[in-house]
Write a structure and sequence with these properties.
With about 200 residues, the protein is an alpha/beta fold. The chain is about 50% helix and about 10% strand. The longest helix is centred in the N-terminal third of the chain and has 16 residues. The relative contact order is 0.17.
Length: about 200
C-alpha cells in the first residue's frame, strides 16, 4: 500500500460536535426551516449539479431560501451546516498519523462541493493530517462513478493496486474494487487496524 484514500462523512466525520446527531437535527428549532423542505427543494433538486461542480452552493441555496425561508440568509445556513457537521473521529486521526509517518501518503477521497472542501482542510485543520483532498466538485465526478476513481488515481500518481480506500458506502467500495483499489467498508466500531488487516487478506 502506497496510498490510503479516506472518505469524510460517515468515516472521519460524524455529525454534530456536541453529540454526534445528524447536522440538521435541530434546524427548524434553531433557524426556522424544516429539514424535509430543505431536502426536497434544495438537495433533491440541485445537489447533484453542485456536488460535481456544475453549480455553485451559495447562489443556488440563496435562490431556494428566497422561496422557502425568506427570513434566512444562505451564509447563515451554510455556517450552521458546516459547524454542525464537523465531529472528527480523533482516534482515527491519531491512527492515520502513525500510518503517515510510516511513509503512506494520505488523501481524503470524498463527495464535496468547493466551499466545504476548503472548510474541511482549512477551518477543521485536515490539511495538517492529509497530503491533499480529492473531491467530486474539483474532479467533475462523484463516487461511485468510475471517473472519480480514475481521476483520483491519476492525482495520486499511483497504480490502482497501490491504493487502499475506506468508505462507509457499500456502492463506493464496490466501485473502488472494480477499478482495482483495495477497499474496506467502514462501519460503526471499525478501526484502522481492522481495515488494514482486510487489505492484507485481500492482497
Amino acid at each position: 500500500m502506497k496510498v490510503l484514500m479516506v472518505d469524510v462523512d460517515g468515516v472521519l466525520i460524524h455529525g454534530r460536535p456536541a453529540d454526534g446527531l445528524p447536522h440538521f437535527t435541530y434546524l427548524e428549532r434553531d433557524l426556522g426551516l424544516r429539514p424535509d423542505l430543505l431536502q426536497r427543494e434544495f438537495f433533491q433538486t440541485h445537489w447533484g449539479d453542485i456536488i460535481i461542480g456544475r453549480d455553485e452552493l451559495e447562489p443556488r441555496l440563496a435562490s431556494v431560501l428566497a422561496r422557502i425561508a425568506p427570513h434566512l440568509r444562505a451564509p447563515t445556513l451554510i455556517d450552521y451546516w458546516f459547524e454542525n457537521d464537523s465531529r472528527l473521529d480523533r482516534n482515527l486521526l491519531t491512527d492515520l498519523a502513525l500510518l503517515r509517518k510510516s511513509g503512506v501518503t494520505l488523501f481524503l477521497a470524498t463527495n464535496q462541493e468547493h466551499r466545504r472542501a476548503r472548510y474541511l482542510m482549512e477551518q477543521l485543520g485536515l490539511s495538517a493530517h492529509f497530503d491533499d483532498i480529492l473531491y467530486s466538485a474539483a474532479l467533475g465526478h462523484s463516487k461511485p462513478s468510475p471517473d472519480f476513481f480514475r481521476l483520483a488515481t491519476e492525482r495520486a500518481e499511483a497504480m490502482p493496486n497501490e491504493i487502499a480506500f475506506i468508505d462507509d458506502m457499500a456502492m463506493n467500495i464496490e466501485a473502488a474494487r472494480q477499478f482495482g483499489w483495495n477497499a474496506a467498508q467502514w462501519t460503526a466500531g471499525a478501526t484502522l487496524a481492522g481495515a488494514l488487516s482486510e487489505f492484507v487478506r485481500a492482497a
